[in-house]
Design brief:
Length: 78
């Protein structure tokens, strides 16, 4: 099955967070209790619709969403 069919849109990247490659992800529902088990996530380009999968290095609740640190993003520029 195509990964777009399995994917559930739960939020969007609001901004980079800090200098170490962390992302502030706004969760539409504001509920993040389910994210404790989060090991992978996908980002979809709004322009091309292309998706890229990432493994989660670190995650913590933040405001109305999450701070996610993908394992492959070393810094803010990545």
């Amino acid at each position: 099955m195509d990964s777009l069919m399995d994917m559930k849109l739960v939020g969007k990247v609001k901004d980079a967070h800090g200098l170490r490659g962390e992302l502030y992800v706004l969760i539409f529902s504001g509920e993040v209790a389910w994210a404790k088990k989060l090991q992978k996530f996908e980002l979809r380009s709004p322009k091309t619709g292309e998706t890229v999968a990432f493994d989660v290095e670190k995650m913590k609740p933040f405001k109305q969403g999450l701070i996610l640190k993908p394992t492959t993003m070393a810094d803010r520029n990545a």
